[in-house]
């Protein structure tokens, strides 16, 4: 089904409102709205060019209002066709998706975006490969007031901003910003088996958020890359992650934050300093893994340069990078 008409062909200030009542709807430069739950579990996209990335609903420089309803795909349903649709939405050009509402059960991704994307007030649940992405997304994404859970990769994009949202229970990563900055505000990043927040070659900024129960909490950049990332943690808690709480290729800067109870290291940098000079920051109780001191060098702080700590920063154990087990301390923490 193609929705064009004069409103789609010629953009105006007052876009038309299109009621989406069937799987396969294509919306161009309009505002679309679900009017009921839409079950696309048996929908098979037409064969032809682009069929491998066809979606239940396709948006081109358009907005979709879920209006409190659910868009459902074949995953988890009984006996879906082998060629059943694998993407909930496919977007091109700048698009937005607003809630409340849910997108669930699409095997490759809840949303496959080929342009800048803004989502607000929605739930992307149990889309096995990706919530937004899938795991190789290359565009910019902004997520507001939303929940993304139960995928391999929760969000993957070139640049990502997350506000007042929960990203939880994803297998590979919660949020992965491939090339640009990753910014998280007022959000919960919890229980992602791989990494909670990950950037490929840029900085990660976390403000007023909780990062807990992930494999690694925050991983900013890659060591020895020319534009490797730094981590900035402000008024946030990074606690109880199985591996390292905060890892940064370059510097890690903390302000009024807590990094506690992480399995291997609290904060680690590959090439730059750890800086905690403003406000009250607590970095304690890390290194809870059974291998600590036996097969792994564990500490609250691990860096190649001496950490720069303010008078109101608390830590217990520091470690000079690559100095072995137990290794050498920086003599900046209480038990060094």
Features:
336 residues, mainly beta, 14-stranded parallel sheet, 13-stranded parallel sheet, 1 helix, 39 strands, disordered N terminus
Task: Note down, in words, how this protein is organized.
With 336 residues, this protein is mostly beta strands. It has a domain of 157 residues. Helix content is 1%, strand content 45%. The protein has 1 helix and 39 strands. It has a 14-stranded parallel β-sheet with strand order 1-3-6-9-12-15-18-21-24-27-30-33-36-39. The protein is elongated, with a radius of gyration of 22 Å. It starts with a strand and ends in a 16-residue tail after the last strand.
Residue share in helices?
A: under 10%
Structural class: mainly beta
Low-confidence stretches: 1-14
Count of individual beta strands: 39
β-strand amount: over 45%
Q: What global shape is seen?
A: elongated
Write a brief caption for the model.
This protein is mostly beta strands. The protein contains one helix and 39 strands.
Task: Describe how the helices and strands are arranged.
Blueprint: E1 2-3, H1 5-9, E2 17-20, E3 25-28, E4 31-34, E5 38-39, E6 55-60, E7 63-65, E8 70-72, E9 87-92, E10 95-98, E11 102-104, E12 109-114, E13 117-120, E14 123-125, E15 130-133, E16 140-144, E17 147-149, E18 153-157, E19 159-163, E20 166-168, E21 173-177, E22 182-185, E23 188-190, E24 195-199, E25 204-207, E26 210-212, E27 216-220, E28 231-234, E29 237-239, E30 246-248, E31 252-255, E32 258-260, E33 265-269, E34 274-278, E35 281-284, E36 299-303, E37 308-309, E38 313-315, E39 318-320
Parallel strand pairs: 1-3, 2-4, 3-6, 4-7, 5-8, 6-9, 7-10, 8-11, 9-12, 10-13, 11-14, 12-15, 13-16, 14-17, 15-18, 16-19, 17-20, 18-21, 19-22, 20-23, 21-24, 22-25, 23-26, 24-27, 25-28, 26-29, 27-30, 28-31, 29-32, 30-33, 31-34, 32-35, 33-36, 34-37, 35-38, 36-39
């Amino acid at each position: 089904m193609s929705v064009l008409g004069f409103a789609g062909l010629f953009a105006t200030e007052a876009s038309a409102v299109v009621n989406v009542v069937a799987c396969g709807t294509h919306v161009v430069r309009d505002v679309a709205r679900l009017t009921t739950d839409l079950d696309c579990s048996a929908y098979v996209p037409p064969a032809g060019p682009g069929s491998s990335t066809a979606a239940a609903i396709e948006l081109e420089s358009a907005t979709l209002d879920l209006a409190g309803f659910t868009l459902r795909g074949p995953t988890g349903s009984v006996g879906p066709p082998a060629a059943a649709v694998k993407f909930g939405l496919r977007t091109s050009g700048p698009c937005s998706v607003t809630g409340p509402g849910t997108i669930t059960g699409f095997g490759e991704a809840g949303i496959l975006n080929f342009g800048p994307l803004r989502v607000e007030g929605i739930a992307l649940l149990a889309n096995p490969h990706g919530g937004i992405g899938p795991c190789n997304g290359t565009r910019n994404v902004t997520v507001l007031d939303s929940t993304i859970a139960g995928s391999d990769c929760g969000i993957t994009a070139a640049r990502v901003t997350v506000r007042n949202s929960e990203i939880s229970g994803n297998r590979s990563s919660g949020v992965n910003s491939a090339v640009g900055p990753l910014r998280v505000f007022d959000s919960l990043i919890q229980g992602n088996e791989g990494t909670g927040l990950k950037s490929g070659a840029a900085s990660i900024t976390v403000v007023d958020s909780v990062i807990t129960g992930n494999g690694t909490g925050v991983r900013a950049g890659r060591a020895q890359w020319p534009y490797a990332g730094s981590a900035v943690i402000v008024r946030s808690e990074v606690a109880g992650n199985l591996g390292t709480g905060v890892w940064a290729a370059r510097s890690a800067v903390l302000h009024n934050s807590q990094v506690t109870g992480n399995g291997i290291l609290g904060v680690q940098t590959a090439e730059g300093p750890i800086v905690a000079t403003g406000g009250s920051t607590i970095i304690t109780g890390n290194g809870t893994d059974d291998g600590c001191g036996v097969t792994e060098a564990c500490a609250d702080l691990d860096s190649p340069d001496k950490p720069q700590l303010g008078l109101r920063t608390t830590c217990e154990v520091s470690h000079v990078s690559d100095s072995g087990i137990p290794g050498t301390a920086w003599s900046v923490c209480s038990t060094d």
